[in-house]
Amino acid sequence: MAAGQFFTSRQVVDWYHAKLHLAQAATALHGEGPAAARRWLRDHETPLRQGHAERLAQQLGQLENKYPEKAVALRREAGYFQDNYRRVHYLEMREEGFPISSGMVESACTQFRARLAGSGMRWSRPGMELLLPIRAAIMSQRFDALWQKAYHLPPN
User: Fold this and answer.
1) For the chain: N or C, fewer Cβ within 10 A?
2) Cα–Cα distances in Å, from 25 out to 31, 68, 107?
3) What is the extent of the structural domain holding 146?
């Protein structure tokens, strides 16, 4: 859906979500809680943070062959990293100043909702679509630049 609607967007899987899948792979291999699972997770966290999800998927696939009794869980996690390898370039994203977790976006959504969908507020879709860019500019401290650009537009 993102490719069809937002074809020029930069997509990133939330870091904590990806790490959860990494932890599930560690649990599949070593069980819940043992030191070996924590060590495996720690050893594979850095390569994931560096964007090597495709390599991680290959390693999990090899482990799937080695441990057939754990194959279902390992295949599931390998598939997750294979399907999302283009969206886990965390090192590049951080170097370019982009967040790698969804906390900022979730917070912004909450703030938008609080300001635009409060008790008793009713907006038409066209009215809301006109207000969203203004609210975004205010929240990102770019309102002055946006206002200057809009102010100098020719009249309709």
Assistant:
1) C
2) 9, 14, 29
3) 103-151
